[in-house]
Design goal:
Elements (H helix, E strand, L loop, with lengths): L1 H15 L2 E8 L2 E4 L43 E3 L4 E8 L5 E2 L7 E7 L14 E7 L19 E4 L7 E11 L10 E11 L12 E2 L33 H4 L11 E3 L16 H7 L26 H43 L1
Parallel strand pairs: 3-10
Antiparallel strand pairs: 1-2, 1-4, 4-5, 4-8, 6-7, 6-9, 7-11, 7-12, 9-10
Length: 352
């Protein structure tokens, strides 16, 4: 009974320690997602997953669009240069904020054969359009900004060719990635129809499949020194496609962020240039008050050596009073002798 009670208390904490995409906003239009489960309650552009637990293992088929991902009924309209805000939530109902703060946020796209609402993405060819890692301070991850309720923001490449695409938003949580198989993958897929008249596209060498795009032992997924600063992080997977920025693709090594447009969480303030050390030094260290124990030794609970001084004076004072008392007793004794002599003399006179 006790074990069941403890489990019932721990279970909500375990559930809220994971998450999913609850909402997407594209150029100001909000698209709600379904809660985690197997039954859709609304028509959405976000493919519903049946568990908010992370995908484990780089060869797991759920690495594609999330655990048990189902086709969504709707498709959102977008254009080259559109701003997409992906709201990651903790728990299963979208009321909690994202729980993790260590690891990259990456976005991929893949072209659908026909409408994305009926497209099986098992063999989709994905190209990377953005990657976010560490902020400028070199120790705080952009993922940490999601904990305050900010969305992960990505821009549709400005030269992307028109067509139907899946947008794959992915968080890799690295808090357990010091050992092989410890990385936690959180992928989610959004169904888009991109307009315009551009012609930009990734090359085949820049495309990967999921699973297939990662290995469990590559840099950025197996990270034994993730908590040993200074952190140098290498993004896993392919580089950001060259057409995204109009130049060469990202090398993926030691980069804080790269990709299309503004990819950082939009609602968060610009990271401060002040490092934690600066914050610490700007706060004056409290000056200790003068110690009562001048010698520096810890105070003792027993009386100090000066304490017996008061009792020492008492016997001296008490001795003086004793002398007075002794003097008063001597005078009394002499008066008693004289009185007895007078009484004896009076009795003798009467007898004669």
């Amino acid at each position: 009974m006790i074990a069941f009670t403890l489990f019932s208390l721990i279970l909500p904490a375990l559930v809220s320690a994971h998450g999913y995409v609850a909402q997407v906003t594209i150029d100001g239009t909000v698209y709600k997602g379904n809660s985690v489960g197997t039954t859709s309650t609304i028509d959405s552009v976000i493919r519903q997953i049946n568990s908010n637990s992370p995908v484990k293992g780089a060869s797991n088929p759920d690495l594609n669009c999330g655990t048990g991902a189902q086709l969504a009924k709707d498709v959102a309209s977008a254009n080259p240069g559109s701003t997409v805000e992906v709201l990651w939530s903790g728990g299963t109902s979208g009321i909690s904020t994202w729980p993790h703060n260590t690891g990259p946020i990456m976005h991929y796209m893949a072209k659908c054969d026909g409408s994305c609402s009926s497209y099986d993405s098992a063999n989709a060819e994905w190209f990377k359009i953005s990657e976010l890692g560490l902020q400028s301070d070199g120790s705080t991850w952009y993922q940490a900004q999601l904990q305050s309720g900010s969305p992960a923001t990505v821009t549709i490449p400005s030269t992307l060719a028109a067509g139907n695409y899946l947008l794959r938003s992915e968080i890799i949580s690295l808090q357990l990635a010091m050992t092989e198989g410890g990385a936690e993958f959180y992928p989610a897929c959004i169904q888009l129809s991109v307009g315009g008249s551009q012609t930009g596209a990734a090359t085949s060498s820049e495309e990967v499949t999921f699973p297939g795009g990662y290995t469990d032992t590559e840099a950025g997924i197996l990270t034994p020194n993730i908590y040993n600063p200074p952190i140098t992080y290498t993004f896993p997977g392919p580089p950001v496609a060259a057409f995204v920025s109009g130049g060469s693709g990202s090398t993926g090594s030691g980069s804080g962020s790269s990709g299309s447009g503004s990819s950082s969480p939009s609602a968060s303030p610009t990271p401060s240039s002040a490092s934690p050390k600066t914050v610490q030094t700007s706060t004056p260290t409290p000056t200790p008050s003068s110690p009562i124990n001048v010698g520096g030794s810890p105070p003792s609970s027993s009386p100090t050596t000066s304490a017996p001084a008061a009792p020492t004076a008492t016997p001296s004072s008490g001795g003086s009073n004793s002398t007075c008392k002794r003097r008063k007793r001597s005078l009394g004794e002499r008066s008693h002798v004289v009185s007895n002599a007078r009484m004896h003399k009076s009795r003798m006179a009467r007898s004669h």
